[in-house]
Amino acid sequence: MKSIHPPHPCVFGDLKAAGWQSKSIKQEIHDNLLDRLAAGDTLFPGLVGYEDTVIPELCTALLAKHDILFMGEKGQAKSRLMRQLADLLDPYIPYIAGSELHEDPFQPITRYGIERIAREGDETPIEWWPRSERYVERLAPGTKFADVIGEIDPGKLAAGTSLSAEESLHFGLIPRMNRGIFAMNEVPELDELVQVGMFNILEERDVQVRGYPVRFDLDIFILFSANPATYNRSGKVIPQLKDRIGSIIRTHYPRERHYGVEIMEQEAGACDEGRFPVRVPLFMKEICEQITIELRRSPYVDHRSGVSARFSIANYRSMVAAARRRCAVLGEAHAIPRISDLGHLHASSMGKLEIDLMSSHQMSEDQILEAAQLEAIKTVFEEYADKHGLEEIADVFGKGVQVQVGSMLPSAEYAERLKRVPPAWEKAFEINPADDPAMRASCVEFVLAGLYAGEKISRTQRHGTITYET
To answer: Are 156 and 170 in contact, with CB atoms under 8 Å apart?
Structure first.
């Protein structure tokens, strides 16, 4: 098949002469996916941790030419997956000029398209539909039958169009996305009447409006998203619709912490550029992600809703922002986040958790967040710290030594305050050896917080200052 590259205008005869071959949208995606697989291309850039789980299942569903439901908790990239499927479309496809349904000139489906091809033949003008316009997404709540399927247009009737004429119809999103991708987010919130119209389109590939005796053989790829709790347990999705969805792709949260850290960094953006750069040590990134992991395990959080990746991203940005503020106020060359900066995460965490109200022990959101932070610090600290020598550090506090730290304490102050602490403190710097005062301050706070989380020392907090002692 010869290729024609828009925006070159042409007529139907040009397509025939070029050997253009029409494909259904699912065949188009099928063929383009096979080409990318054979070439070893990256299929879904920016999606981390799905290489061995979600993506193979999705490829199988696409090659099977199924309509697809993405099912998973919030923050599992369901919408991103759906939107990236548009990248598997051809850059442009031709359609009959003026057709509201972007009809294939080789297979017109409306009276307008059929009559125009019959009247003008090879001279029928052809327009080009770009890939970027062939995907549309709709949120289920509040969606009406007229929005997605269509309705009789009162304006056209008032203008004299007969009620029995096809021209009296106002098409909804699905007919207008003929030869494109239509995505419905949160399908359990969809009205039952709309669901009936949807399963007819899924099975028969036709649409009828208000009983008007017209059948449009639609060529469309339909996607859905849903939370497993509402899809499987609420009973709001009618069985006929479930039966007609070809494949269900189950998404998940990162199964390894390093994947979560990679997502967090990718979505939060660079923080070590521009004025007052912030450099984040790996252990602080891991603590930030581990907080989210602990909350996903927490018996006090509703697991049916989940804890979104946006939780980690928002907290990471807050941690970086707290360090940058210190850097600007104190006039330091750069900033490195510390454990004390985690005190600012409550503002970015509040409201993002759904508390399990059926839990036998009730805790406030603040208490749940505090417990998750403490457990995250303990988990990461135990992975990093060589226990040999840490007991010696803890024993120092048994002799009455107190160390005060805080998010606004200059980095240089840490060296001064730790002068009376014995050489065992060098264990702290084995975590991330550096002569940078800001890095050493961050390491010291990490060790102190780790000892506290392991119940080796005690801690008091007052007005942004943390005091560690026995």
So the answer is: yes
Domains of the chain and CATH, by start: 10-250 (3.40.50.300), 257-469 (no CATH)
Residue with tokens 């409306």: 110
Q: What is the per-residue pLDDT across 189-204, written as a single tens digit (0 to 9) for each?
A: 888 888 887 887 877 7
Rg of the chain taking only CA atoms, in angstroms? 30
Q: How far is CA 299 from the centre of its chain?
A: 24
User: What is the strand order of the sheet 465-469 is part of?
Assistant: 403-406, 465-469, 458-462
Cis amide linkage into residue 7, ω under 30° from 0: yes
Residues pairing with 151 in the sheet: 170
What's the token pair of residue 306?
């989940």
Confidence (pTM)? 0.85
Nearest Cα residue to 212 out of 149, 272, 155 = 149
pLDDT tens readout for residues 135-182 = 999 988 888 877 887 776 655 655 555 555 566 677 788 888 999 999
- Reading the block at residue 423, the tokens are 């050489």
Q: Which residue type occupies 46?
A: G
Q: How far is CA 64 from CA 29, 30, 242, 246, in A?
A: 11, 8, 17, 9
CA distance 172 to 347: 42
DSSP E strands, 283-423: 403-406
Q: What does DSSP assign to residue 245? A: -
Which one, of 81, 54, 44, 45, lies nearest residue 253 by Cα? 54
> Do the Cβ atoms of 396 and 458 come closer than 8 Å?
no
Most confident of 231-240, 318-327, 458-467: 318-327
